Each structure stands twice: as C-alpha cells, then as structure tokens.
C-alpha cells in the first residue's frame, strides 16, 4: 500500500473543531457520550404526545422498500458470503498486539473531532461519522485491514458495514473508545493526542454504493432517532401497547434468543445464511434490530437501509450497557 500522509493545517483543525458538537474525550461529559449522540428524540419532538414519540423519519412514505441498485444487492450478498468468523469485530487487545507488531493496517476513529483530539489510538485518522465517511470512501485503502472505533461500538459498526459493502476489509473495535479501548490493559501505551493527518489515495468505489452511502447519512441527519439508534424506552411503549408498529428483529444465535428475548421478536441469526432471509422481511413497517450489545445489530440495520428498508438499531442492544433493554430493567420472555 502506498499512501501519502500529511498533517492537517491549523485552519483545517479549527474547521473540524467548529463542526464538531461532541465534548472532549478527556472531560467528564465525553466519558458519558454514547454512539446514539442522544438516546432521546430531537428537542423539536420533545413536546409531542406519547404516540408522537414513536414517530420515525419516514413511516408514512416507506411502505415498500425501494429496489436497490444491482451492485448494492450484489455487495450485500458478498457481505454475507464472505462473512468472517469474527463477524467483522476485533477486540482492543488484538488491535494493540497488531500495533506492537507494526502490522500494516489503517485505524479510523469516527468520533467527532473534539473527542478524537482528547485521546485516540496512536496513528488513527479522524473521519467523523456523517458525510465525511462518504467523502473518504475512495481514499480509504481496500488492500489492508481497516479497524474502526467510535464511542461504544454502534456507530463504528455502521461505518464498518459501509466500508465492507464498498469493498474494504474492515472490522469494528469492540466497545469503541468508552467501553473498550480506554478500559483495556496497556491502553496508555497505544493511545495519543497527536493529530495523525489525513488519508490520500485512490481506491474506486462503485457510483451506486457511493450514492447509497450518501443517502444513508442524509437520512441519518434527518432521522428522529439520532444515528438510527432506537431508545429502549420507546420500544417498551410499543411492546406494552402491542400496537405492532414495528417489526422487531433479533440477530443473536438461536440459543441466546431462546434464553431470553424481547416479546414479539423474530430471530434471524447473524451468519452467512442471513442475506435471503433479510430480503423476506415484512415491508409494511419499520424494523428495529437488536443484538447483545447493539454492535452486530448496527451492521444489520445498515445493510437493511442499503436494501431500502426503514430500520433502526436498539441502543445498547438487549444487554450491552445502561442504555440497553435489560440495563433499563425491561422484561424478556423465554
């Protein structure tokens, strides 16, 4: 791989900082930051009734998924045909080991710039979640491993899915910065506050996938639920009301599903046989996907969006952290 790196100018740094709305990774507020940006609907919706709080960004206009471009459908098929045993996940400790061995790889931090500059993996490039990902798709190598981190793993999983659909070899760092990297043994030896620069290269991506990725982030910016992260509290309202407003999809393995799942959930395990089953999902309502921690479900949610479905990922998963279904004390059935 031949990449040329150069340091960001002071003006670029100021520009990125001005665009960022996230607090610094070193202060107390950033320690509480999650990948949903906010687990509640936008302020404009805060005064809505309880029924309105269930509103999604396009429920009235998306009864049937739009037919994706052939190259997008093929990319989804390849995604599952080539699904690795690690499910596009890697632990912080495994990344540290690869760093120690000086393995050829690219580290991408998708947090906002203020969080990134407060502390990040040494050598990581800052490509914030949003349109910047699309702008960088053809700069990100497709011939070396890409390891992605965010705050708690859900945004990183979305970006990991997009990178793999675009032909990269990407994995999400389990737990992100807050729940993974910063808590791992020997983290201090593998992190830095020094700006790493920007990527420059030429790795073509199909126009259809670039368009799909652009549409994805445009929809994310407009969504009632920030970054497509669906709060457990809003899902509870629907489950209690038994209103059938959503198709609820578990993507855990069969044993985990049987041990305890959210009432009314379908189960399609995340594996190499998943692709045709996703295409058979109901098209008459939005889909809320959940996994153990919300990271695998974020991959699936992203793929469903690329296929034209209106989909969301359950914030924190069924039992990932305090945001999760079980973390809130909500019931499961067996």
TrEMBL record:
SUPFAM superfamilies xref list: Rhodanese/Cell cycle control phosphatase
Domain of life: Bacteria
Originating species: Hungatella hathewayi WAL-18680
Bias (Low complexity): 34-63
Lineage of source species: Bacteria, Bacillati, Bacillota, Clostridia, Lachnospirales
Biased composition (Polar residues): 24-33
Keywords: Signal
Domain Rhodanese: 101-189, 242-334
Gene3D superfamilies xref list: Rhodanese-like domain
Region annotation (Disordered) ranges: 24-71
Entry-linked Pfam families: Rhodanese
Protein name as catalogued: Rhodanese domain-containing protein
Keyword Signal set for record: yes
Signal peptide: 1-20
């Amino acid at each position: 791989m031949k990449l040329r790196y150069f340091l960001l100018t002071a003006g670029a740094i100021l520009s990125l900082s001005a665009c960022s709305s996230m607090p610094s990774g070193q202060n107390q507020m950033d320690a509480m930051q999650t990948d949903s940006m906010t687990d509640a609907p936008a302020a404009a919706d805060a005064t809505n009734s309880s029924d309105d709080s269930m509103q999604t960004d396009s429920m009235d206009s998306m009864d049937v998924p739009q037919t994706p471009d052939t190259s997008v459908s093929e990319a989804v098929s390849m995604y599952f045909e080539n699904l690795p045993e690690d499910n596009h996940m890697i632990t912080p400790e495994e990344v540290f080991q690869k760093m120690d061995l000086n393995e050829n790889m690219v580290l991408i931090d998708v947090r906002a710039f203020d969080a990134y500059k407060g502390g990040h993996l040494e050598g990581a490039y800052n490509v914030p979640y949003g349109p910047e990902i699309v702008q960088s798709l053809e700069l990100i190598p497709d011939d070396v491993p890409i390891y992605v981190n965010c705050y708690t793993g859900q945004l990183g999983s979305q970006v990991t899915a997009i990178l793999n659909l675009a032909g990269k070899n990407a994995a999400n760092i389990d737990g992100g910065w807050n729940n993974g990297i910063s808590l791992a043994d020997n983290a201090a030896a593998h992190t830095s506050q020094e700006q790493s620069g920007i990527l420059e290269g030429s790795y073509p991506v199909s126009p259809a996938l670039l368009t799909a990725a652009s549409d994805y982030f445009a929809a994310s910016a407009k969504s009632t639920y920030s970054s497509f992260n669906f709060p457990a509290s809003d899902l509870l309202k629907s489950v209690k009301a038994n209103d059938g407003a959503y198709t609820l999809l578990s993507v855990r393995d069969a044993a985990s599903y049987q041990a305890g799942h959210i009432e009314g959930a379908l189960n399609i395990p995340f594996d190499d046989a998943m692709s045709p089953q996703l295409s058979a999902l109901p098209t008459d309502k939005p889909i809320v996907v959940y996994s153990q921690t919300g990271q695998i479900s974020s991959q699936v949610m992203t793929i469903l969006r690329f296929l034209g479905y209106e989909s969301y990922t359950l914030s924190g998963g069924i039992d990932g952290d305090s945001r999760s279904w079980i973390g809130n004390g909500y019931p499961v059935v067996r």
